[in-house]
Design brief:
Blueprint: H1 2-11, E1 15-17, H2 24-28, E2 41-44, H3 48-61, E3 65-68, E4 84-87, E5 94-97, E6 102-106, H4 111-119, E7 123-124, H5 135-141, H6 148-151, E8 158-164, E9 170-174, H7 179-185, E10 194-201, E11 203-204, E12 207-216, H8 219-231, E13 236-244, E14 259-267, H9 271-282, E15 289-290, E16 293-296, E17 313-320, H10 325-337, E18 346-353, E19 375-382, H11 389-403, H12 420-426, H13 429-442
Parallel strand pairs: 2-4, 3-4
Antiparallel strand pairs: 1-2, 5-6, 6-10, 7-11, 8-9, 8-10, 12-14, 12-15, 12-16, 13-14, 13-18, 17-19, 18-19
Length: 457
């Protein structure tokens, strides 16, 4: 491997890191510190040709390949033990054509970076709720965030991609060229190659009504929040967290440790109408804290204190059509009785109400197959000491077991384990069979298997 590695280093303008190199330990870490992998080689390409060189090296050396955009994979897919990690973080170029409302964006760009850039033109791509997520990962999995009911999933704004396939070829895919590949990368993850650039359609955006509202967590409040969010106009998208309040400066000291519903929301429409609708959330209970007001959309990313680069995280997530009374009761009971939360750790249930523009795209238009589902529910434990992993995993499993009967699918980007049943929850049979055909065509040897893997056979 030595001579081949020397040749690769000589061909790269980007960085190549080995285990003894300065910066290697920082570079290898992803978001979820429970997945602690040590690649044999980390390559940070600067152009698509260097991605192809890294793939050629890995193939000739018989090494596993992992690909990373922002490193936020809950399952630790953006790393490999003893293989080659292709880290796209040096590829952050973007070109904004404001007049045409189109952007070409390299895959190492983060959602926060691109949102700030496009917002300067009064435009936006609908990403998620974290500024540090790489556009590559969130887009390939689907992309659910604060604008989803208004503008759809992130993949619904993708007009084309450039992708390095397993044979090292840089190809384009869009609605006219390689339509099969274009369909598959919109929801099928990194199974089919290394996407190096995305072409996004941009949407006008101005001042939004957004922020956070903290309400006491009671059965009536949770039911009211979900019903209002489901019945809201498409202009409103909500992401709610049921948890015990940490000692945040924005929360009155007497509320620290109180069980609460933290609603983050964006109303992207006429502001007076938004104020009237949001008042219906405020009327559910006296707010503990109210941070809802007109704001530039990028400031939504400032609501959440900057998270550490790596944290422990255990998540079980599923798509559903409802959260019934029994499930709400189970959530409240387990959160009230749990002795796990501390100033360092989070135990919570996150609820994302879907619908709106997501549901109006035909189910077979992309590989994201759960457009008719109404809710994403995630049971989360994060930020705990690794010595406490088993206790937190047991808590997640216990609460999940009480509400999992409502599951009607899964969302690729929120999975933290690579198990076969979850693969088929994510992709119904007809979608899965179609993905297998595309996989067989573009990656017959399954080079790209560090993902929720679509095998070519």
């Amino acid at each position: 491997m030595g001579d081949a590695l020397t040749r690769l280093a000589g061909q790269l303008r980007g960085e190549l890191l080995l285990p003894d190199d300065h910066g290697y330990d920082d570079a290898r870490r992803g978001y979820n510190s429970l997945h602690d992998h040590r690649p044999a080689v980390i390559v940070r390409p600067t152009v698509a040709d260097e991605v192809a060189l890294a793939l050629e090296f890995a193939t000739s050396a018989g090494l596993e390949v992992a690909v990373r955009s922002g490193g936020h994979s809950l399952a630790g897919y953006g790393a490999t033990e003893g293989g080659v990690l292709i880290d796209l973080s040096a590829m952050q170029a973007s070109h904004i054509d404001a007049a045409a409302r189109v952007a070409w964006v390299e895959a190492g760009t983060t959602a926060g970076q691109l949102t700030a850039t496009t917002a300067a033109h009064g435009l936006v791509v609908p990403f998620g709720d974290s500024p540090t997520v790489g556009v590559g990962g969130i887009t390939l999995g689907g992309g659910v965030g604060w604008l989803s009911r208004k503008l759809g999933l992130t993949i619904d704004s993708v007009a084309g991609v450039e992708i390095v396939t397993a044979d090292g070829q840089l190809v384009a895919a869009d609605e006219h060229t390689r339509q099969d590949l274009f369909w598959a990368v919109r929801g099928g993850g990194g199974n089919f190659g290394v996407v190096t650039r995305f072409r996004y359609r941009l949407h006008p955006i101005g001042t939004v009504l957004g922020g956070a509202l903290f309400l006491p967590a009671t059965h009536e409040v949770i039911r009211g929040v979900l019903d209002l969010a489901d019945a809201a106009p498409d202009a409103l998208t909500t992401i709610s967290l049921i948890t015990r309040l940490p000692p945040l400066a924005i929360v009155p000291p007497e509320a620290h440790g109180q069980l609460a519903v933290l609603i983050t929301l964006v109303w992207c429409g006429e502001l007076d109408e938004g104020e009237r609708f949001v008042d219906r959330f405020r009327a559910l209970a006296p707010p503990i804290a109210d941070l809802l007001h007109p704001r530039p959309y990028p400031s939504m990313y400032e609501l959440i204190p900057e998270a550490p680069r790596s944290v422990t995280n255990i998540t079980y997530s599923f798509a559903a059509d409802e959260l019934d009374d029994a499930a709400i009761g189970s959530i409240l009971q387990q959160l009230e009785e749990s002795n796990l939360p501390s100033t360092q750790a989070l135990t919570a249930v996150e609820l994302r109400v879907l619908g709106g523009a997501i549901s109006r795209v035909p189910i077979d238009a992309t590989a994201f197959a759960h457009r008719q589902r109404k809710l994403l529910c995630s049971v989360v434990a994060a930020g705990f000491a690794e010595a406490d992993t088993d206790r937190h995993r047991s808590w997640v499993q216990s609460l999940t077991g009480a509400i999992r009967n409502l599951a009607k699918g899964a969302y690729l980007n929120f999975l933290d384990a690579a198990d076969e049943p979850r693969l088929h929850e994510t992709y119904p049979d007809s979608t899965y069979r179609r993905l297998v055909e595309v996989k067989r065509r573009y990656d017959p040897t399954n080079l790209f298997h560090r993902n929720l893997n679509i095998r070519p056979t």
